[in-house]
Structure to design on (1002 residues):
């Protein structure tokens, strides 16, 4: 301690490409596959890159979330998460056996559990240790730690099932020191949240090195590149060395039954020069900067899913290509996708740096794209969470939502929509029944419509109304909000916004206002109104055409004064004049009006299109601020229909059905509907006749 | 051969009751419309003046339902549940009533048909048939329970493993078991209805148990009889879906043809139902010795005596 350490000197020249390492780990671990226990030793080097003097260190001990039912995680989740239930006897925990400074000072007894978020005395997912002498700005501290981790039965992203092991959040991990003014910090301190039900992670970049010892018959995969494997035939174990610079976490998996397959993503084969040139042109960057690099794709699959191997690689390749072209090349050399076995679904659908877990099922039909959806989404987190390392605890929309938006675009573009799984004895009948496929865009909108707006998009993960609100807000509603933004700005501008934001904050820790700043800067517009209402606020958007009216303007009847003369026109006379005009072929005039309403508290400028029966179209713009507005027209034809937001830019609108209104009721539609419902009812009745 | 003969004979009996089929279809459709009405009340007003209506009609999917629900407001789910409950109740009672009218006339093909005779039988047999349908819940529940036990057994054997394949296959077996068992119970209930209709008895429980015993004693005949109807039903459904797919999304003419096709399909299904009851009536005296005169059919020109004369 107190000595200026130059870390990983060999990697210094790479700092231009990689992040400056703040928290680096050198770990030696061994797995007791029978007891599912990991014994580890790690050297943690933490650099104080702030202007503050830091008196304590705080660590995440995530695995203690699974220690008992009193942990904050259990209290919040009730032992259920993402459709998975915690095992009644598969507890997990982590114990720091020793904690010493480089000079040998033993700090083990000073390590105390703290609960900075909720004060829960039974939670021990964060621990703090005071330092004998504080770490001054620019200094590094090196700690040697021994720890024991009991993996839980698979639940909430980690654990074991049978001989399958997924080690995520498995080692003591230091928090992030945030100096005053960094992100939202009002005063300098540790940003080290407890493990909550609805939150993921936040960490500094660092260089990782793991020596992992497991029984020799296990097949292993991990974050980073495999440098070597050493076999110890006498003990029947093998030691794997993995290294990876510039990442925020490190996870691994081991199972004897894995089917290990590899493919190369060859950038020059997967992309055409035209595609790269188009990207370079759009962003005004040199051609080489838009080019992608080669990546080794590794799949660890369950043997019963062997026939789906190429689907995994196709999904990975599509993701590497499009994320790379849109936001900047994937900088790492490998990506490993893990397919958890049956019953270990809780470990699926999770992202770690260069290492993701997907999820599929036995004989998944080709047109049901859950495999592709999960694989592309988890790979996407390499960009939104890993490379742009936002705080998932506090602003989950910045990773899950951005990723939902990006993933949806790729899936809809490359794979089309997914068929609904209407499986009968293993055969998917959806296509035969003619059921339409669902695009990701529609999936997100369905979620947006199905769950009421209760929270803003930006909120600490554990402060949402409930788990569903967290999920819909962080994923689908953000996807819908970003698509709305894309339609407001135009696709090209949005593409420039996203790439600029990504490149500016790559290997850094942005917050939501940083994104807003990029949006305004790149688009040259002020979008504060959009963000304040629908991102930082929880306003709802719903505009409607509430009324259409047409009134024929005939000859007026009554007493009129014209040039000093009183003129009395009787109603009969007025009608007579009208008939004479009609005989002459003159078209009658109509006074027509459209009333539009703002039904919710969200305000957005609106465009209104009005079509008349003679084919004439009028357009109006409304600032949308009032509760309602009336537009009046005098023309020789009635209004046929009117529609607000005709291009459906505002995907956040809670109902498109009320955006338009016809003067005439759609009798054909009613008839179609009625007959369709009737047919269903007839069939239901026939089934009852057969059964009862 | 016996099941095939019965199947064919059932079709003949159904064909012989074409006028009754039209009557059955008419009231069946009327009641189905009644059941569909509450749903129409939710869906149609929401979209009848919207330009989105036509668009959604072409893309019937979950997105469509979400738009409807969002437009119909927060009360829509509760209204939909009430509408479903009301529809199920209406349809259930109507199903019993119509079968009570049709079965006796199919069981006794010689007796003359008239709408009056149909409704007389419907009135006379409604309560025994309703009781029978309530009793039938027990064997259906037993079939479900057995299928559940199969599932539990499969999970006990393979649930802790790392492979889904054995469980998936076990689930296929369970589904086939459930379909076949439910089919056999359904066939037994057809026999029970015929037994009630022929005997003029009101002992629904006895008819139910007796028919289940009949299925137990002649499982092969019953299975193949059910299979004949299941295959016929499957072929009709397959033909309908293939043709309907070609017509969906077409113009007005295509829509009119689709509606006609739908009603032909409904007629076909109703006809097969008639045939199933007819086949049961054909087989019942063969599989079950006639114990007494009360089971002998009355002469063709003589109507069964109405209740109030007994």
């Amino acid at each position: 301690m107190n000595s200026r350490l130059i870390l990983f000197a060999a990697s210094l020249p790479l700092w231009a490409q990689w992040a400056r390492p703040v928290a680096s780990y050198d770990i030696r671990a061994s797995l007791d596959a029978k007891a599912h226990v990991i014994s580890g030793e790690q050297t943690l080097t933490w650099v104080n890159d702030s202007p503050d003097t830091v008196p304590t260190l705080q660590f995440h001990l995530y695995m203690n979330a699974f220690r008992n039912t009193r942990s904050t995680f259990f209290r919040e989740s009730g032992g259920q998460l993402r459709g998975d239930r915690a095992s009644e006897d598969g507890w997990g925990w982590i114990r720091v056996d020793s904690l010493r400074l480089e000079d040998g000072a033993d700090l083990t007894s000073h390590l105390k559990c703290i609960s900075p978020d909720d004060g829960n005395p039974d939670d021990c997912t964060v621990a703090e240790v005071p330092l004998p002498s504080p770490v001054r700005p620019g200094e590094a501290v090196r700690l040697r730690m021994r720890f024991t981790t009991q993996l839980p039965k698979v639940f909430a992203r980690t654990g074991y099932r049978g001989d399958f092991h997924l080690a995520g959040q498995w080692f003591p991990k230091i928090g992030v020191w945030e100096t005053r003014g960094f992100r939202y910090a009002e005063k300098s301190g540790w940003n080290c949240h407890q493990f909550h039900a609805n939150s993921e992670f936040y960490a500094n970049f660092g260089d990782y090195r793991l020596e992992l010892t497991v029984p020799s018959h296990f097949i292993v995969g991990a974050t980073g590149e495999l440098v070597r494997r050493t076999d110890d035939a006498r003990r029947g174990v093998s030691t794997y060395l993995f290294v990876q610079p510039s990442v925020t976490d490190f996870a691994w998996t081991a199972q004897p039954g894995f089917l290990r397959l590899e493919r190369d993503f060859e950038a020059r084969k997967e992309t055409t020069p035209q595609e790269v040139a188009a990207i370079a042109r759009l962003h005004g960057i040199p051609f080489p900067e838009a080019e992608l690099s080669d990546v080794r794709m590794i799949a660890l699959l369950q043997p019963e899913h062997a026939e789906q191997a190429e689907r995994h690689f196709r999904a990975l390749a599509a993701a590497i290509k499009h994320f790379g072209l849109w936001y900047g090349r994937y900088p790492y050399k490998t990506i490993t996708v893990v397919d958890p076995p049956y019953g270990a679904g809780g470990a699926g659908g999770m992202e770690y740096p260069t290492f993701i877990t997907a999820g599929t099922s036995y004989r998944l039909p080709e047109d049901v794209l859950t495999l592709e959806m999960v694989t592309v989404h988890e790979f996407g987190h390499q960009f939104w969470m890993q490379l742009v390392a936002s705080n998932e605890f506090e602003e989950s929309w910045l990773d899950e939502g951005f990723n939902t938006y990006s993933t949806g675009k790729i899936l809809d573009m490359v794979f089309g929509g997914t068929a609904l799984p209407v499986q009968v004895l293993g055969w998917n009948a959806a296509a035969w029944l003619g059921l339409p496929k669902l695009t990701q865009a529609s999936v997100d909108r369905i979620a947006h419509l199905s769950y009421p707006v209760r929270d803003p998009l930006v909120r600490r993960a554990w402060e949402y109304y409930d788990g569903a609100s967290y999920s819909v807000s962080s994923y689908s509603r953000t996807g819908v909000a970003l698509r709305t933004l894309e339609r407001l700005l135009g696709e090209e501008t949005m593409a420039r916004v996203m790439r600029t934001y990504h490149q500016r904050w790559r290997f850094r820790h942005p917050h939501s206002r940083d994104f807003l700043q990029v949006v305004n800067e790149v688009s040259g517009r002020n979008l504060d109104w959009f963000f304040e209402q629908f991102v930082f606020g929880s306003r709802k958007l719903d505009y409607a055409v509430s009324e259409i009216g047409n009134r024929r303007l005939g000859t007026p009847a009554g007493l009129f004064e014209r040039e000093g003369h009183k003129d009395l026109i009787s109603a009969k006379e007025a009608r007579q004049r009208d008939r004479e005009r009609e005989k002459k072929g003159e078209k009658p005039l109509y006074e027509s009006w459209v009333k539009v309403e703002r039904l919710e508290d969200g305000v957005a400028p609106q465009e209104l299109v009005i079509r008349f029966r003679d084919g004439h179209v009028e357009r109006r713009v409304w600032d949308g601020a009032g509760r309602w507005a009336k537009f009046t027209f005098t023309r020789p034809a009635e209004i046929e229909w009117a529609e607000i937001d005709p291009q459906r830019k505002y995907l956040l609108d809670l109902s498109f059905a009320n955006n338009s209104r016809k003067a005439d009721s759609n009798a054909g539609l009613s008839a179609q509907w009625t007959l369709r419902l009737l047919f269903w009812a007839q069939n239901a009745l026939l089934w009852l006749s057969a059964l009862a | 051969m016996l099941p095939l003969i019965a199947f064919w004979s059932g079709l003949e009996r159904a064909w012989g009751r074409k006028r009754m089929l039209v009557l059955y279809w008419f009231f069946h459709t009327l009641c189905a419309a009644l059941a569909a009405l509450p749903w129409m009340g939710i869906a149609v007003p929401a979209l009848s003046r919207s330009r989105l209506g036509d668009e959604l009609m072409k893309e019937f999917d979950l997105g469509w339902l979400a738009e409807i629900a969002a437009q119909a407001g927060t009360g829509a789910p509760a209204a939909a549940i009430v509408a479903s409950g009301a529809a199920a109740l209406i349809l259930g009672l109507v199903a019993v009533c119509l079968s009570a009218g049709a079965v006796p006339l199919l069981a006794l093909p010689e007796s003359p048909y008239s709408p009056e005779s149909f409704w007389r039988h419907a009135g006379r047999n409604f309560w025994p048939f309703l009781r029978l349908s309530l009793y039938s819940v027990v064997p259906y529940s037993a079939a479900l329970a057995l299928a559940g036990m199969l599932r539990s057994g499969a999970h006990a054997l393979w649930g802790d493993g790392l492979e889904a394949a054995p469980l998936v296959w076990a689930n296929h077996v369970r589904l086939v078991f459930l379909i076949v068992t439910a089919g056999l119970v359904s066939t037994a209930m057809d026999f029970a209805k015929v037994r009630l209709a022929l005997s003029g008895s009101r002992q629904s429980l006895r008819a139910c148990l007796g028919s289940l015993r009949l299925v137990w004693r002649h499982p092969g005949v019953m299975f193949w009889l059910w299979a004949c109807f299941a295959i016929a039903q499957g072929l009709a459904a397959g033909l309908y879906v293939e043709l309907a797919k070609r017509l969906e999304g077409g113009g007005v003419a295509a829509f009119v043809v689709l509606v006609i096709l739908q009603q032909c399909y409904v007629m076909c299904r109703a006809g097969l139902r008639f045939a199933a009851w007819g086949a049961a009536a054909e087989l019942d005296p063969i599989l079950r010795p006639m114990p007494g005169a009360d089971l002998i059919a009355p002469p063709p020109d003589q109507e069964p005596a109405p209740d109030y004369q007994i």
Observations:
- Residues 1-15 of chain A have pLDDT under 50 and may be disordered.
- The CA atoms of residues 199 and 665 of chain A lie 49 Å apart.
- The two ends of chain A are 81 Å apart (CA to CA).
